[in-house]
Amino acid sequence: MFTVLYLADRASEEPMEIQVLNGRPLETVIRTARQKVELFDAANTRAKKGPIGFAVENTDGDELYRWYSQVRL
User: Fold this and answer.
1) How far is CA 63 from each of CA 19, 37, 44, 46, 60, rounded to the nearest angstrom?
2) Contacts of 22 (CB under 8 A, 6+ apart)
3) Contact assessment for residue 21 and residue 2, using Cβ atoms and an 8 Å cutoff
4) Pair 30, 59: CB distance under 8 Å
5) H or E segment at 44?
6) What is the tens place of the pLDDT at every residue in 50-71?
7) Can you give the pTM of this predicted structure?
């Protein structure tokens, strides 16, 4: 099980959305989360609202992966 924390700002660790994914490999979780942020960027670049990146944690709360979009720095 992995938890994806969608982040609205590089300066804040407060997630704007949390998604728990069960039974998927880490690579699939990362690909799914990245696609979600990229699709949001494509649709809302001018609005500058929504997630700009994400972090993936395991069940112990350890961060396994972090990624930010280059569209909105």
Assistant:
1) 14, 18, 27, 30, 9
2) 1
3) yes
4) no
5) helix 26-44
6) 789 999 999 999 999 999 987 6
7) 0.85
Rg, the chain, Cα only:
12
Q: Which residues contact 55 (CB under 8 A, 6 or more apart)?
A: 4, 5, 7, 15, 63, 65, 66
34-45 residues labelled b (16+ CB within 10 A) or e (exposed): eebbeebbeeee
Cα separation, 35 vs 70, in Å, equals: 13
Return d(Cα 59, Cα 37) in angstroms, integer: 22
